[in-house]
Specification:
Chain A: This is Elongation factor 4. Chain A: It comes from Anaerovorax odorimutans. Chain A: It catalyses: GTP + H2O = GDP + phosphate + H(+). Chain A: Its main location: membrane. Chain A: GO terms for molecular function: hydrolase activity; translation elongation factor activity. The structure holds two protein chains of two kinds. In chain A, 26% of the residues lie in helices and 32% in strands. Chain A has an eight-stranded antiparallel β-sheet. In chain A, strands 20, 21, 22, 23, 24 and 25 form a six-stranded antiparallel β-sheet that branches. Chain A is of the alpha+beta class. In chain A, a hairpin with a 5-residue loop joins strand 2 (62-68) and strand 3. The termini of chain A are far apart. Chain B is of the alpha/beta class. In chain B, helix 2 (76-89) runs parallel beside helix 3 (109-118). Helices cover 40% and strands 21% of the residues of chain B. Chain B has helices at 37-52, 76-89, 109-118, 132-138, 144-156, 175-187, 205-212, 220-236, 255-261, 289-297, 313-324, 333-340, 344-347, 352-360, 375-378, 381-386; strands at residues 11-17, 19-20, 32-33, 60-68, 91-102, 122-128, 162-168, 192-197, 240-243, 246-248, 266-269, 274-277, 281-284, 331-332, 364-367, 370-373. Classes of the chains: A alpha+beta, B alpha/beta. Chains A and B meet through helix 12 of A and strand 1, helix 7, strand 12, helix 11 and helix 16 of B.
Amino acid sequence: MNSYQKYIRNFSIIAHIDHGKSTLADRIIEKTGLVSQREMKEQFLDNMELERERGITIKLQTTRLVYKAKDGNEYIFNLIDTPGHVDFTYEVSRSLAACEGAVLVVDATQGVEAQTLANVYLALDEDLEILPTLNKIDLPSARPDEIKAEVEDVIGIDASEAPLVSAKEGIGIEDLLEEIVHKIPAPSGEVDGKLKALIFDSYYDNYKGVVIYTRIFDGKVKTGDFIRLMNTGKKYEVTEVGIYSPGPVACRELKAGEVGYICASIKRVADARVGDTITLDENPTEKPLPGYKKVQPMVYCGIYPAEGEKYENVKDALEKLQVNDAAFHFEPETSTALGFGFRCGFLGLLHMEIIVERLEREFDLAVITTSPSVIYKVVLTNGDIEMVQNPSNLPDPTDIDHIEEPIVKADIMIPKDYVGNIMEICQERRGKLIHMEYITETRVQLHYEMPLNEVIYDFFDALKSKTRGYGSLDYEFLRYEKSNVVKMDVLLNKDLVDAFSMIVHESKAYARGRFVCSKLKEVIPMHQFEVPIQAAIGQKVIARETVRAYRKDVIAKCYGGDISRKKKLLEKQKEGKKRMRQFGTVEVPQEAFTAVLKYDENK
Amino acid sequence: MMKINRKKGPAGLYIHIPFCVKKCGYCDFLSFGECDEEIQKKYAESLIAELSLYRGQNIKCDTIFIGGGTPSLLRQEHIAKILEAAEAAFCVAEKAEVSLEANPGTLSRDKLRAYRKAGVNRLSIGVQSMDDGMLSFMGRIHSSRDFTENFQAAREAGFSNINVDLMFGMPGQSRQMWRDSLEQVLALEPEHISFYSLQLEEGTTFSRMYREGSIDLPPAEEDRAMYHEGIRMLREAGYHHYEISNCAKPGFECQHNLKYWSFDEYYGAGLGAHAFLYDKGRSCNVSDFDAYFQKIGRGELPADPDGYSYETQTDLMGEYVFTALRKTEGLDMEDFRRTFGENFFSVYEDQRQTIRAYVKSGHLALNGTYLALTEKGIDISNEIMAEFV
């Protein structure tokens, strides 16, 4: 080991959502004096507004801290934050690969959760030293001894010396910092070896191009070097290297064991993929680092400009988002109901929700999203295989031999009192119970195999609702499996609205059809005529509802000088005439598209 | 950009009180039930502060309308102070019409006397129906008898200009029931009667019940028959039908509401209040209490940044037409020309054929420089008005 490496600690903080990871990161930053308390925005590392609001970390943040330990030495801490959601498992695994250790934060009131475990397994896969830490120790309901025992039982690591902290109150942070110094190993690696560096994140900067977050394993890199990204095979000249502390600070070079950033005039984030290995073009290393994979979208939906919104604006915004998000895909598509829009691919539901919310907030756009869909493997009678993620593109039924759908392994952790409820909702969603285990006397983990199609609709909402928020879920793709799925269409006033079409399992079609019709009945406004709502498979109508007519040629009261409503009404009447001439159709409010997806406890 | 050549007359001032004892089943106006005295007091103080922001600008005003909600729910001192603030900030004409909306169940002799003393000279009482069963179904908090007592008390307190609001086309209402209500109100001889056909607004209890099928509405023909019968009865009783939904004894037309239909200027104060000014166009105040209090606290006008409608000359013309057509005298094409500097028929060249057809079918009438809806035309007023927006 080189002498400088002795004083470096590279670590992540891993936790279940809400267990206080970001707050803890804030305290550590504050304690090491990097950012003064006054400058400290709450949850420093969650710098997207959305992240702060939802209390989850989406994009990784990395920062270098200097800690003066009790032994009198100054240590460099590279804190690599990890995204806190199941959709981003791969990104988490790559950030962990950049570390020697991980601080495992467990909520002292709630104990081990499904994602805690999922993250621990990822960390163990990378051979990391795991430092259990109990948070929220200030709460009266904290049960540190029980939870320590739980960590030992469930995870099988020694928790007897786990620091007891309260990130919120700033209790126990010093102890934790000392633990990091003593328990987490210093990095090793040959400074004079061939460059081998891991990309664990990247983002797009308007001035610098793509900024790569990297961990150097061997060798060194400096401005002017020509680097090669081993998996994509592309070559670039380094324009800047530096560290985050917490803003970017350029430095002379990055060397083995260090964490920092590299800029090399790369145009798109997709060209600097997470997990790829950086080496020098002239003197490359023989083998890339293990674990690289190209992340693929698992969930697709249509995104359309809402009424009055411009197609071009949505396109520009999607392009801007894509520059920064290698996992997000989109391409143009058209819907007869919604006009020109985009088919978009996401890692999972949360990823989708985030993109949609960012479109609305950061770009101030009004968009309509259609029912999410997974990717079906359609085997045709002639033996060809088509991958279909848009229900409208499903080939003619007579050409289809069979359809296969993605199955995931879903691990659900719940208090034991809810087992009955949860088994019921899993069963309703075609889940197959693989096994069930008692984590502690009161907590149970259920291992299911479930069609992803069932998970993406409302499973997470149902799980939360049925367990009063105590249930947690982690899932990963397993395999494709032959399945009896059909395309269900929705007709409004006899016209097919393609944006509502969805692929469902045959056994669920009737229930789904009834649900969609009854939801639409609630949100579709009354028209001058009766509006029949029908769900159909092919020509066969499987559910029907009707929106009553409200024929009155109203004489709106223009109250208190507010003529705007009356004007809108008149404009609508005028427009309506036009539209009816063109399509003979029904006015569908935007909320209808989300209403049919929402979990309804009473359904 | 808009261009209004018209000479400014005195403006109107609308003051909104967004409180009610409880929300009625059909109402979607900006009003909140069950608000405590604390917030009412804070609101009244904020209103006073808002009005004071207009001080020193020498704005002439000859109508004030305190509407709601239920303004009569406020303590009388608040009303007096609000009017005081309005008079301190605006140049209010000596003979200005000062209206206040009141609901039976919130009135008392003391309150009525206090309103008179504070300068209110026109009272608008919402009874909506004289059928107690109907009143309770509508979610009103009073009986027909409460109303009659309040009406007489208002007379005793010195109100010689009273409006009564009625509604028709209610679920389960027969023509006879409507006639009875109207007759009983006519017996009290109010100076002004407003009568509105029930509208189902999205989000109200009535709208939900109708969707579910738990209530029905009289068929359209029945609704129209009630309307025309109402007008006949009012005429026979000596009222002048001067606007689609309003009748008055001659000389008692509501001057404030006429400003809305005559393209006159008006200011709005209070939560969600609307305004129309020639140099600023149409705007409205924020409709959220916190935002309202915050802006007032900072000494700003509480205008809603999203409440400004950018309006083209064409927009304004369309508004002029459909508001003017609400008056039975109709739209004065000469005034239109003076206001916009263009001839009515050259602006609405494309509609000329349609207008002619409506005149021929007896839905529109041309009378000198005036174009007006006929009583028959009122039944399809939206269809006709939509031609101009």
